[in-house]
Amino acid sequence: MSKFDVQRIRKDFPILNRKVYGKDLIYFDNGATSQKPQLVIDAIQKYYTTDNSNIHRGVHFLSQEATSHYEQARKIIQKYINAAHSEEVLFTKGTTDSINLIAFSLGETLKKGDEIVISAMEHHSNIVPWQMLCDRKECVLRVIPINADGELMMDEFHSLLNEKTKLVSITHISNTLGTINPVEEITKAAHAVGALVFLDGAQSIQHMKVDMQALDCDFYAFSGHKVFGPTGVGILYGKRNILNALPPYQGGGDMIAKVSFEKTTYNELPHKFEAGTPDIAGGICLGKAIEYLSSLDIRQLQQHEQDLGKYAENELKSMKGVRIIGTAKNKISVISFIVEGAHPFDVGTLLDKQGIAIRTGHHCTQPLMDIFKIPGTIRASFAFYNSKEEVDIFITALKRSVAMLL
After folding, report:
1. Which of 29, 50, 88, 141 shows a CA-CA span of 20 to 30 A to 336?
2. Into how many domains does the chain fold?
3. Does one domain contain both 274 and 178?
4. Is the pLDDT of residue 406 over 90?
5. Higher pLDDT, 258 or 77
6. Is the residue at 1 inside a domain?
């Protein structure tokens, strides 16, 4: 295992000290949501205790202070993802909201017969909004197939691209399989036919350093709650020239320059896409979460997670009847598996009684489950605060659970 000081890191996350059914909590459901460091929790309390005010609209001290903190968070996030301009960083409710924003705004510019490309491993949030758009505008949805290892079939992807392709929307990392997709190749190929690229970063930003200018994608989205921040807030990155050209998603306060009954003119970026009072505390505290992540050595963090994932995977492979779903050569520390003869829900319930939080089901990827001809999987998803000792306890508990079921 790596020299990453996981025990020191764990002290930053108070929930890891609690017990479940009398057992020490082992939290392996990080793909669904991550836990929060104390500094983020403190920042939420501080905002509502001493700083609470609406932003952008008031001349009084609290409003000016809250506005300053909110916009500072935007700049922190801009720097972390290396966006060229702070106005390219839009606050949203999360990845799902960000995808729906672009599906509406970009959708208004599309016409009958235009094509959108997604993949077979997408989360429902990166399927349904595009289906709704295709129904609304009579566009065509194309799907990149995957192989038995859970990797995109890139020859098939390239054959799907043509002059009708207007958007490729792809997950950077699969929430179910852990597959890291070749997004640089995807972006280059899409741009070559004039298509835009949307990357779903909900599962990537917490595991690796992302660079918008290097990736050259047109849109990138992630959720605060998966990157050690609050729920109900997230980020949509978009290239400035593209966002300027798109119509707004929602109307209301803050997204306007001037309103009359005859005509409304829209505000400049980023406010054009941020109608209404936002989750102010969420935005500020997402900035704090990114600051916390920035304080860690990303290379050590990645190595620790990779070591943890490989160790757990090897232990699972040694168990009779266990089948891992998703064996891509390039993947993160997410392991989906089934136990022959045991329903995932039953396994998950027995693990829960032993203090272990894992995820069971289709993970909002029902089409992917259909491809593998299974109803769902058991998913263990790791974060940098997880330890080898926790994996050992998990494997012992899993063996005990399977023995009870079979």
Report:
1. 141
2. 2
3. yes
4. no
5. 77
6. no
What mean pLDDT value characterizes the chain? 96
We report the CATH number of the domain holding residue 210 as 3.40.640.10
Look at residue 35 and tell me if it is in a domain: no
The residue with greater pLDDT, 58 or 376, is 376
- 54: pLDDT strictly greater than 90: yes
- Mean pLDDT for the stretch of residues 391-404: 97
- In a domain? residue 36: no
The span from the CA of 172 to the CA of 185, in Å, is: 12
Domain shared by 260 and 343, yes or no: no
Q: Is the pLDDT of residue 1 over 90?
A: no
Assess whether 22 and 50 both reside in one domain.
Answer: no
Catalytic site includes residue 364 = yes
The reply to whether the predicted model has a pTM over 0.85 is yes
If asked whether residues 255 and 135 sit together in one domain, one would say yes
Domain stops at, among 273, 294, 315? 294
Single out the residue in 264, 294, 324 at which a domain terminates.
294
Tens-digit pLDDT profile for residues 329-353: 999 999 999 999 999 999 999 999 9
Range of 266's domain? 41-294
Within a domain: 248: yes
Could you say which of 134, 217, 285, 364 is catalytic? 364
